[in-house]
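HOLO CASE FILE
Compound: magnesium ion
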Amino acid sequence: MTTKPRLLTGDTPTGKLHLGHWVGSLENRVHLQDEYDCFFILANMHAFTTRMDKPEEIRQHTIDIAIDYLSAGIDPQKSTIFIQSEVPAISELCFFFSMLLPYPRVMRNPTIKDEIRDKQLGDNYPFGFLLYAVGQVADILAFRPQVVPVGEDQIPHLEMTREVARRFNHLYCDISSHLADEEHLAAGGLFPIISPMIGRVKRLIGTGGPNEQGQLLKMSKSLNNAILLSDDPDTVRKKVMGMYTDPQRLKPTDKGRVENNPLWVYHEAFNPDKAWVSEAENRYRNGEIGDVECKKRLVDVLVALIEPMRQKRLLLEKDMDYVRSVLQEGNQRANAIANETLELAKTAMRQVF
Ligand code: ATP
Ligand code: MG
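Model generated. Tokens follow.
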């Protein structure tokens, strides 16, 4: 058993991981492995909320993301990678937690509203789609972590997690509803009240340009606007050369817009040569440098980041027995913690018979 503080975060297997994951969360995870006892959940049950008709695809993406983790530098000797559906205590906790959130409260969650709009779910989404927000509360609280590194879109889910933890501690652990968040555990509360840890880029925009309302969408697995951590150099080049930049700028001598332009957002996020970026941004604003030159630079920067991961991935794909053994061991470690939490929760709820 380790005495390191615990960290929980993860991904829904709706595709492979992309640059948004790297700057939003994955980079933090790789760096925090020594300091924290890390648990990374592959939330395959949540993938069913929008893709219940594609079970084989969900299975494949679950494995793909596990390989993405290992390729990006997650070390299974230090960290636990596990599959949500292999840890049933999470679902049991989800049922109890769903009683602690009023239905209108779930519907007010802005990330749920954004997802319904951006994934064009209309009003025809399954009941389980709403339940996933509570499911995520259970994914987190089952591990009673100190730290949860996520992208900005997850802040509303983290807020709901805090609310459920406070309510549980109040109803079942006799914690006063006026007690300060950081004092809950010391006073005998079961669940910590967790603040999110946000990555250095809160919300990386996608390559696709604005939607009908003029909003720039975040890079997302489901929106076909992502550069993947598994893309080969040729694919990266095609995606960058073809991506949206400043639609008003027709030739290199036109003045260009840098703000909210993926070309410059990505240079700022990924190019280590900060001096070149700030000088080139000025030249772009003044119509003194072409899109093509700046895009070519960006391709080099992104390939330098992605290619070592992709090479590692090619090796892992030849050793699936190893990947499966990492997941099996991870599931075991995750079950040990989540079962312990469920027992403690049932004891607090007086449901031990
Ligand atoms: P989906 O389209 O299925 O919702 P996604 O690309 O949004 O997929 P998730 O699995 O929902 O990815 O998110 C996993 C983690 O990565 C979350 O912490 C999320 O905040 C973070 N993340 C995802 N996309 C971005 C982004 N573009 N910028 C910053 N962080 C991101
Ligand atoms: Mg998402």
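CASE NOTES: The pocket of magnesium ion (ligand 2) is lined by residues 220 (CB under 6 Å). The chain has a mean pLDDT of 94.
CLOSED: yes
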